[in-house]
Amino acid sequence: MAGCTLLIVLPVRAQSRTATCDASLGLAKMQHTPPKGRLQDAGAQQTKHIIELGKKAIPMLIACLADQTRTKEPIEDFWPVTTVGDIAFFYLCDLFTDSSWQHSTIDGVVDWKNVSAEDPNSPSWTAWYNFVKRHGRRYVQNAWYKRWKEEESAIFWDGKEQCFKIAPQVAPNNPHP
To answer: Considering the domain boundaries, does residue 16 fall inside one?
Structure first.
């Protein structure tokens, strides 16, 4: 009997350690977004809320990466389905992309460059779902979480570029050359 109780309690404790997606972000209620540009350039209500949250939004979005709740309609053109986790990935990638739409401002995470490298001739939705099938959503989440913990204090919002960046590390003065 005690063994059965232990088996029931352990999964609950393990789940409580994993952060869950905060519904206040509204990702499950996202609607279609414009086909070009970053999410922060489109002006959705969810985006305004995320930008108002500032850096606090980053771990919240990371927590959403594993959420497979489907949106009512796909938010991206040509995608057959989008989930909350997909949208969290879109946000994280976009929020760490400069205003040229060409350069990521963070390295060491899973981003579109990694995803498309594995399926270079596939549409983005196929490449993404193949990546997730191969590696898992937790893999993506863990990579982002690890980087967040490493750089949390150095991450800042660049109002001109409308993206998060990482402040350069200043090396301590070395009096001995």
So the answer is: no
